[in-house]
Structures are given as structure tokens and as C-alpha cells.
Amino acid sequence: MKTLCVASFCILALATSSFAASVTVADNTAALPGIAPATAALLLDAGLSVHNAGGGKRTVEAKNFHCDERNNGALDPSDVHAGLETLTCRINSKNQKGTHAGQPFGDRRALRDVLQKIQDSSASGGTTFSDCATGYCGVFAKSITCTIDTSIQDFGTGGRWSCTYVDGQ
Predict the structure, then answer these.
(1) Counting C-beta atoms within 10 Å of the first and last residue's C-beta, which end of the chain has fewer, N or C?
(2) What tens digit of pLDDT does each residue of 48-83 get?
(3) Which residues form the domain of 75?
(4) Which helix (H) or strand (E) holds 12?
(5) Count: domains in the chain
(6) Axis-axis angle for helices 35-45, 108-120 (nearest 10)
(7) CA distance 32 to 57
């Protein structure tokens, strides 16, 4: 009986890890204009490493992006945080409330807003990055990988930036 329970648990663990959804957004995706270049800029501005993918393409990736977002509406009005949300985000982190693992991410509001726009879009592909309940939201992306095609020199024609977002939910 114990073996059956352990085997069932292992199968469930493997199955749940395969439920992660992903969506790829190119710079010319009509439903999400400007999202791919904005994301690429945020990752580059954060100082993440750029890797040569060959053929004039470069990639930059943020792994395990996690945010704790708290609504401070219930605070005493004399508190300076009253009515304002607090947001802390990290990369290389755990998808766990209040974690301090990983490195702080500076442009947290901008990247959180990008993920929310994707989640709310008809082009989201079923990705879900945020989970909210009673004054708290957890935001998590298993990975965000942007590809920059440096062989495309005309930035207005499209095809230079493309980002893939994996939710890990």
C-alpha cells in the first residue's frame, strides 16, 4: 500500500510540473504591441547575461521571477504605506510567499505590469503569472527568454525581438 501511495505521489508530481503554459510574443504581435522589446530592455537593463544563439541572434533570460505584492489598504491612514501596494521581486527565486532566495530585481513594477498585460491578453496562450487572495498576490514566471535578432537592422519592420514567457503555475 505504501508503495502505491508513493508511486501515485511521484506520478502526480511529474504531471503537475508539465502543466506550465508558455506564450511567445514577437515584436509584431498585434494583441501585445511593444511587449517584446520592452521586456528585452528590462532584462538587459537588469544586467542579465547575453548569450550568442548563433546566426546573429542573442538571448537574455530571467529564470524564476517571483514577486510578493501586498495591498496596504487596511493600514492606519497615518502610515505612509497606507493605500499603496508594496512589491518585492526577485530572480533565481522560489515560487514561495515571502522568500528571500535569489537576487532582487530592480524594475519590478514594469516587469510585473508586462506579465499582467500578457495574462490579460487574448494572445496569452493560457499563461497565468499571478495568483491573488485577500490583500496578497504572488507573481511567478518560471522563465522569460528574449531573443534579439541583430541581423535585422530596420527596427520598424518587426522580427527583431521575440520573448517566450513560461508561467510555471
Answers:
(1) N
(2) 999 999 999 999 999 999 999 998 877 788 888 888
(3) 21-166
(4) helix 2-17
(5) 1
(6) 150
(7) 22
